[in-house]
Amino acid sequence: MRRVQEGMQVCCRVGAMLVGIDLDRVQEINRHVDPTPVPLMPAHVRGLVNLRGSLVTVLDLGQVLRGQPTAVGARTRTVVVELGDETCGLVVDEVGDVVDVGQRRREPLPSHLPADQRRWFTGLVQLPAELLLLLDVDAVAGHGVPGDGAAGAR
């Protein structure tokens, strides 16, 4: 079941896109640390990091959303999100403000957006300066978690 994403959103840059991640799903935000690569994983799986004794799969959100790897720089961050009993790291170009979109009108995605892009988002919200795409964390995580039978089948 898809969770309705509204309320507080962590705004992240992925290329030119402004992407919102539901604050309720965010466990922490870390400076980027190079993960340990895992052989035979798809390009969007950067590898694994040890986060206080737990192995966390790190996914490149740029690779998932745009098909281009995220260039690591001083502002690159890994957003650690909760997925039930597991956690997953999402590499983004930078993290900005937390905004409350609960009182703003949530719009559907434009019909001309290709289906392979629509699957990553639940909608969009008009902010004063630009559009915020609301990320479907479950769709992204299911796409890249090793051993998930749904990976690539979405």
Characterization of the model:
The protein has 154 residues and is mostly beta strands. It has a single domain (8-144), classed as CheA-289, Domain 4 (OB fold (Dihydrolipoamide Acetyltransferase, E2P), Beta Barrel), CATH 2.40.50.180. Helices cover 12% and strands 44% of the residues. It has three helices and eleven strands, in the order βββββαββββαββα. The protein has a six-stranded mixed sheet with strand order 8-1-2-11-10-9. A hairpin with a 2-residue loop joins β6 (77-83) and β7. It is globular and about 40 Å long. The two termini are 14 Å apart.
Topology of helices and strands:
Blueprint: E1 8-14, E2 17-22, E3 26-31, E4 45-51, E5 54-60, H1 61-66, E6 77-83, E7 86-92, E8 94-100, E9 106-107, H2 115-118, E10 121-126, E11 131-135, H3 137-144
Parallel strand pairs: 2-11, 5-7
Antiparallel strand pairs: 1-2, 1-8, 3-6, 4-5, 6-7, 9-10, 10-11
Give a quick set of tags describing it.
154 residues, mainly beta, OB fold (Dihydrolipoamide Acetyltransferase, E2P), 6-stranded mixed beta sheet, 5-stranded mixed beta sheet, 3 helices, 11 strands, 12% helix, 44% strand
- β-sheet strand percentage: 35-45%
CATH superfamily: CheA-289, Domain 4
Strand order of the largest sheet: 8-1-2-11-10-9
Please write the CATH class name: Mainly Beta
Q: Which regions are unreliable across 5 or more consecutive residues at pLDDT < 50? A: 1-5, 144-154
Helix content: 10-25%
Q: What is the averaged pLDDT score?
A: 86
| CA-based shape | globular
Any idea what the CATH architecture is? Beta Barrel
Count the DSSP helices.
3
Total strand count, please? 11
Distance between the termini: 14 Å
Strand count, sense and barrel status of the largest sheet are: 6 strands, mixed
Class by alpha and beta content:
mainly beta
